[in-house]
Design brief:
Distance between the termini: 102 Å
CATH architecture of the largest domain: 3-Layer(aba) Sandwich
Bound molecules: zinc ion
CATH class of the largest domain: Alpha Beta
Number of helices: 11
Helix content: 40-55%
Largest sheet: 5 strands, parallel
Strand content: 15-25%
CATH superfamily of the largest domain: P-loop containing nucleotide triphosphate hydrolases
Number of strands: 9
Strand order of the largest sheet: 6-7-8-5-9
Number of domains: 2
Length: about 280
């Protein structure tokens, strides 16, 4: 067996590292004959003794350290960006909702409820650990879906895997593979609970999704136009076991007020009236 001495080993190592730390324009030799950086004036070489032999090894000057740090940060940022892109692709979110943020939420009507949802996203690691979900309920167009999407986007930005879809889409278009993925994702947001068809087939699938999350101990956020009363005492007895699971794990957050869609429509009407020179009520 060939044996190499410690000094030989260090020399070969130093040679490799010197290639990555070469003499650059402006670098100079100091009074000890060691190479120094022309920019930060720190040493780029050092003398060490191995088994009585003196060896010159490369060392990092301030510039080289900074460059390595920047490189590391760049790599980390690129990794985070590609992970976010990947997560967003997998999130199944409507592209129209991908831009909404808590900072752009209109808090005039539901400030307390929106605040609770914001804190939920801040406390998500704990919420997930304790398997606590939310039930955003209230009439159509009060901002439930918008607010749920704000939670989704806040978490996606932190690299948390989130899927936001509706039970209708999941049941009509979802493969079994997709449904099984639903049981493993960190946060599942199911929009419009109660809108699915009430066939035995559909309800069985709904129950399977809800129950798989329940058994996996992972949280769900639901939005629904149903009232709490309708969830607690469903007219259709087949729904009771689904809603029981929902109510057991999800904290109800009410959204009230005039429908945003109605307000928007009304604003459009006012604008038209002004444009056309209507003088009603002026
Ligand atoms: Zn330097």
């Amino acid at each position: 067996m060939e044996r190499i001495s410690g000094a030989e080993f260090v020399k070969s190592l130093a040679a490799v590292h010197t290639e990555n730390n070469p003499q650059l324009e402006g670098d100079y030799f100091d009074e000890d004959g060691l190479l120094r950086c022309g920019t930060c004036r720190q040493p780029k070489r050092s003398r060490i003794e191995v088994s009585g032999e003196e060896i010159i090894v490369p060392v990092w000057c301030e510039c080289r350290k900074k460059a390595a740090d920047a490189e590391k940060k760049q790599t980390a940022a690129a990794l985070a960006a590609s992970r976010q892109w990947e997560l967003r692709k997998l999130s199944l979110m409507d592209s129209a909702l991908s831009e909404v943020r808590f900072s752009s939420a209109d808090e005039r009507e539901n400030s307390a409820s929106i605040g609770m949802c914001r804190r939920y996203s801040d406390l998500f690691p704990q919420m997930m650990r304790e398997n606590r979900g939310l039930l955003l309920f209230g009439s159509v167009g009060t901002g439930k879906t918008f607010t749920a999407a704000c939670i989704a986007n806040a978490l996606l930005e932190q690299g948390v895997p989130v899927v936001m879809t509706s039970l209708v889409k999941l049941i009509d278009g979802g493969s079994d593979e997709l449904c099984s993925r639903m049981s493993a994702i960190d946060l599942l947001i199911l929009d419009d609970l109660g809108a699915e068809r009430s066939t035995d087939y559909a309800l069985e699938k709904v129950y399977n999704v809800v129950d798989s999350r329940y058994r996996a101990g992972l949280p769900v956020i639901y939005t629904t136009n149903l009232t709490l009363e309708e969830l607690k005492h469903p007219a259709d007895i087949r729904l009771a076991r689904i809603y029981d699971r929902v109510l057991e794990r999800c904290f109800p957050v009410e959204f009230r007020g005039v429908s945003h869609r109605k307000t928007a429509a009304r604003q459009g009407f006012e604008e038209m009236k002004a444009l056309l020179g209507g003088d009603e009520g002026g």
